[in-house]
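Exercise (ungraded).
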Amino acid sequence: MVDPIFGKLTWDSVILVQEVEDPNLNTFITSGAAGMIPVGAVLIVVLLTWLKWWKPFFGWITSVDHKKIGIMYILFAVIMLFRGVVEGTLMRVHQATALNGGFLSSDHFNQLFTTHGTNMIFFVAMPFLIGLINIAVPLQIGARDVAFPRLNQISLGLTGAGGFLITISLLIGEFATGGWTGYPSYNGSLVNPGVGPDYWILSIGLSGIGSTLTGVNFAVTIYKMRTKGMEYMRMPLFTWTALCTSILLILAMPPLTACCVMLGLDRYLGFHFFTNDMGGNLMNFINLFWMFGHPEVYILILPAFGVMSEIASTFSAKRLYGYTGIVAATMCISVLSFMVWLHHFFTMGQSTTVNAAFGIATLLISIPTGVKVYDWLATLWGGRIRFTTPMIYLSGFFILFVMGGLSGVILANPTLDYQIHNSLFLVAHFHNVILPGTLFGILAAIHYWFPKMFGFRLLENYGRATAFCWIFGFCLTFLPLYPLGLMGMTRRTVDYSDPAYVPLMVISGVGALFLSLAFILLLLTFWRSIVHRKKQQNPIGDPWDGRTLEWWTPSPAPEWNFAVLPEVDSRDAFTTAKQNGTAYQPIEKYEDIEMPANTFYGVILAVFVCGLGFGLVWYIWWMAIASFLGCIVTMIVYAFIPSKENIIPAEEVRRVDEAWRREAREGRGITRDDETTVANKGLARPDELPAI
Amino acid sequence: MSTTTEESLHPGLNLGEEHGEDHLEAETSVFGFWVFMMSDLVTFGMFFAVFASSTTALAGGPGPKELFDLGSVAWQTAFLLLSSLTSGMAVLCLKQEHADRVFPRKQLVFWLLLTVLLGCGFLYREVSDFIDMAAKGGPPTRSGYLSSLWSLVGLHGVHVTSGILWCLVIVAGILAQGVNQAWKLTILRWAVFWHFLDIVWIAIFSFVFLGGLL
């Protein structure tokens, strides 16, 4: 029986207590990780109090400014990336020593690959990308805000609640052991009566709803909030990919919600959706999950493609080659992504005809992707290329991502898939697309847009070192997994008996250490750049000779983004304005600007959602019911509170905007040669090159 | 918002004879809600798909012929279709405002409450049908078929319940704060939601109930 007050929660559920009662290496590692949660929480509280930052802290979490929300998403993702990198390294090092048994217990290892996958997809990659979309898209389309600012805050809150659940599972209880895909009936209540699968269901289910709402928000923002003259075929490529990603979020997240709800009903109320007996059908779960899961990989890669397009064009000072082709390819990929989900279970017994159809559909995706790669290459061709940090990531991406794509083409062939599915070949493949694609895209984007977010550039030396370390670490870690897979080593293997695996496994383990080093270097890049922020400032806001509208504002961009909404008459409107010398001309008339005021709405909802999730995981019914009612009451109360607007007087806008324009007109600007030096204050002097 | 109607690419919705910028606000707000509904439609689609693949998963338990009461389903359908009509009347009240006439708030509240009443009638019959089915040996835990049936129909029921709750909040809102722009937009979104539930019900009616008995 479950306790009416504490549910299934007992002292023994707390990992630190387990360590005291049964000290061994596994509990030492888990409790070490778990101990970081209370220690981190206390540290944050002390730090906020010591620095007297509570007021700005609440200013941030109640903010509905899309730029601040974007920064919070990225901060959240960096923290979660820390956990993901540590787990990944731990697994690789374990496997390097796992001939006839390594140092981790199998249950511990199972939790590691489950949390690593779940965490990296839902709480690292997606928040990173959604954060970048938040920061860049409204600026790129010349809007003051997103369509639904309060909804944006709620989405962040839901993502945070999911992150809370997966994090707290480290300290209290356990996480699922069934992999990030969580297949029943392994995750059903019969096999797995513990709290692990419930943590999995609720953390991704709740954050999934947040992602759906983000999709709605940005699709509407891009459809309805574009500035005058910003026609579809004039939108920057990142905005295009953000639009396609939003549509994918809208259509692909509901299957995930549905299969989480059904699995929850099976576990909590004894339904028979996916059970082995009584008419349950676990293939339904697998179909639903991959109907979400396949588009998901394009949710992860498309925004990164957008970033690569922006960077290729900016850092070669050329118009993007084949703009129309890339847009069409993006749309093609979005549509095709819904037609291939079955390739995730070629070996599960459907007819050869079905397998052939889905194999061909999968192969087709490589065509638009290839179009893009050639377009980027052609963009660089004959351009004024600067080999800055984002360009290093782009170069790594070109070579490695194409390799990953090609190994995907191999896997898309059902006959070959029969040989290599569930082997390390697959692990190598998807890391080979997700790291060079998504992660490098994200890191490049952080370097690219960091000056826009905070008003100062990241240090170039540290950035370059970090980039090389990621690329080198990736190659060392994941490329050996291809031959290992072909040698027959399966994935998610806690130990093995074939000594032939050892050399490559050791190389891979060493590579993982390089990836950890890369993460540390990334933090160091942030830290050293913050220390040197005075020298690295770029208040005028255009450090890279940018081409799109987000560079046409001061850095960091003011709350209202644009004092006067820009009018667009071409692609790369800002470049045109700079060439005509009209970019920083004085403006005659300023108007009052209305901006949405801060609100606690999303924060309160997020707290209740955390309570709901935690209560459900532990069968603490009073907490779950009270939190659920809390959510409903909050929504009703806020329906009665009209959303408040701050009015920013025209005079203040004039003061800020005129000062910025004057400074830009009077400055001489720097050439591209001095781009990475301290002389770069964010005013670009474009090269005297014909714009081709 | 500094954009005027002439500048806008999207003319917006007609919320009455003269609403100025309300039209523009409505455009984004209602379009956004439509997009959200499309997402919800996918969720229903998933439950439909699982139901479709479970129609033979009876596991020796009762099937449609033993469980369904078509008379009651007909009543539910009637209640829901009528409520769609009355919700439409409520929205028409918004449009029928004239500059020289007091806003027909009483009429609006009347149609909204009538919709709630019909919705409650629907829910009452649905819940009593569920109780009957359980009594006839068909609780959702009996078989895969029944699990998918209960959750598909139940998901729709949960939506109807939230629609009713939402409508009551709207009534309270317009009584407390008047029919201001925010509540007008809420009514428009709620109406989209309510008609949507009607359409989903028609699919459930034909696919689950008629389909099960034929």
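Further reading is listed at the end of the chapter. For now, observe: Chain A touches chain B through 49 residues (CB under 8 Å). The domain at 52-597+643-674 of chain A is CATH 1.20.210.10 (Cytochrome C Oxidase; Chain A).
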